[in-house]
Amino acid sequence: MNITFKSICDKTWKVILKDKLFVFTVVAVILGLILGVIIQQDHTPYSTDLLVVLLKFPGEILLRMLKCIILPLVVASVITGLGDINAKSCGKIGGVAVAYYISTTVIAAILGLCLVSIIRPGSGDQSDFISKDGVTINENTNTLDTIMDLLRAAFPDNIVEATFGKDATELTEITRDDGSKYLKRNLQFKSGINMIGVIVFAIVVGVIMSLYPEESAPLMKVVQAVNDVTMRLVTLILWYSPIGIFFLIAGQFAGVENFGEMVAQLGLYVVTVLVGIAIHFFIILPSIFFAFTRSNPIPYYYNMLPALATAFGTASSSATMPVTLKCVEEKNGISWRISRFVIPVGATINMDGTALYEAVACLFIAQVKGISLNFGQVIVTGLTATLAAVGAAGIPSAGLVTMVMVLNAVGLPVDMLAVILTVDWFLDRFRTMTNVMGDALGCAVVQSMCSKELAEMDQDTELQMVGEKS
Ligand code: ASP
Q1: Quick one: which atom of ligand 1 is closest to the CA of 316?
Q2: CA of 354, closest atom in ligand 1
Q3: Domains, the chain, ranges and CATH?
Q4: pLDDT means per 10 residues in the chain (470 residues)?
Q5: CA nearest 103: which of 394, 362, 386?
């Protein structure tokens, strides 16, 4: 017994010594949760209290550093990833990745629809807990405008402008003199990186560079250097991340208003989303991983823990992307040719957790309001939830914003979003972890499907290097 205990201690100590950063990150999450809950129960501060703002401050600095690095990292990694791939392999890698993104997102949305129909979290007498104070929701969002905005974002008219904002349709209801109403469309510039535009641009540049290797060699060297330096910066930021994550989580949990009330009112809804996320995270995604790679998913998951902790702390797949890239490349042995395409694109469009969440939330609202949806409307909910997840940016609560589109598609009232908002910050962390894991596993699936192409590319590069030397 003693020996076993000693050996366990020795093993744990070895892990601690070998992977200090990983241990610090996990400890940071746990301590952050404990501190946050203790402060919350002791003082019940408001989210804007100085105490909470100060508590979150070191975390805010982490978020700022991660966000700051996203732009050079995405551009450099996509271009270097595609820059020396031939067009045929590039097409296959892209095709497999997109097929994986779409199928896993659709599966997640269907899972959400099934669970919410079985558990029926909104069927009790809950309509009286609706309180909409202080929340403004833009009710005028429709599917067609969202698709057009997505396409507009993919083709920015100014690449510099795309690095700090994008156009989005704003619909305003106007009343004519005769009392009739119509919607006026306006393109509004919204700040925040236009990730889709930047990625599309980088993909095209990367592919063109791969077609003209000689002409683009000097530029490729520069981009490669930018990539290497940015990855070193990521390593530096990672050493600060346990501190940032600790404070982010403590501040977030400390500042929750009416935690008990929130759980009592929306408990079953929260449980439904969490059960769905757990099934997707622990059963569906690992099964897909196993089906394609024939290997044990547990070590792969274990190696992703720093990225998962960052996703939990930041609630943003974009901000987590630098850590995700590092984990898949350095710990899970994914080829940079795959990860540098699959992770940035995945962090922007592949959101399984968000699709599941939107599907559950939409039917939950219908149940609370006593509106029964027919089969066609349920299908539309699933499809629009998938699309809304693709359209959602990898930032906190993006899923809640694009959910207006899902509700409008089936004619459900959007006022209930104000209620869901109270638990969104909490669920967001779990769906972001699922989104990040989905991208990471996608790399393994693409790698196993494209192993022949990868081997060919490695051979080409070796031959090239031998040629250059001689
Ligand atoms: N926060 C999520 C993410 O960054 C998006 C969402 O709100 O669902 O992946």
Answers
A1: 4
A2: 8
A3: 20-469 (1.10.3860.10)
A4: 68 70 86 88 66 88 88 88 74 89 94 93 58 47 77 91 88 82 84 86 89 90 92 89 91 74 76 96 96 94 92 91 93 91 89 95 88 85 88 85 82 80 87 96 94 78 63
A5: 386
